[in-house]
Amino acid sequence: MKHLAGPMVGIAVIAACSQHNGTTNTTKAGPTQVFLIDAPFPYDQVARVDVYIVRVAAGTNPDTVGTGPGVIAAPHRAYNLLDLANGAAAKLGEGILLSGQYVQFLVTIDADSSSITLKDGTVLTNKTSPGIDWGGYPSRFSFGLFTDPPIQIADTGAVVVIDFDLGRSFSARDPTNPAAGFNYVGYMQVRNSAVTGSVSGTVMGQNDGPIADASITLLVVNPNYPSDEATWGVLGTARSDATGRFRLPYASPGSYVLAVDAPATSVYGSLRVPGVSVHTGTETQTGTSIVPHK
Question: What is the arithmetic mean of pLDDT over 143-169?
Answer without folding.
Answer: 80
